[in-house]
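Re: that chain you flagged

S.,

Sorry for the slow reply, it's been a week of failed gels. I finally had a moment to sit down with the sequence you sent. For the record, here it is as I used it:
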Amino acid sequence: MGSSSELAYQLILAKDLQYLSEEAFFTLNSELVEIRKMINAYIQKVKPSS
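Prediction finished late last night. Pasting the structure tokens below so you have them in one place:
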């Protein structure tokens, strides 16, 4: 999940540098959290069972 962590950092940085409003940050961050959940579910589904 390295790329999503990098994106999370970029969102925080953009907010701190005031390129993003608080509202835009929270909207995008919430979407990122949902996407991370979907990716994790997909990984678990396609991971070979032991």
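What I noticed first: The helical segments are 2-16, 22-46.

Talk soon,
D.
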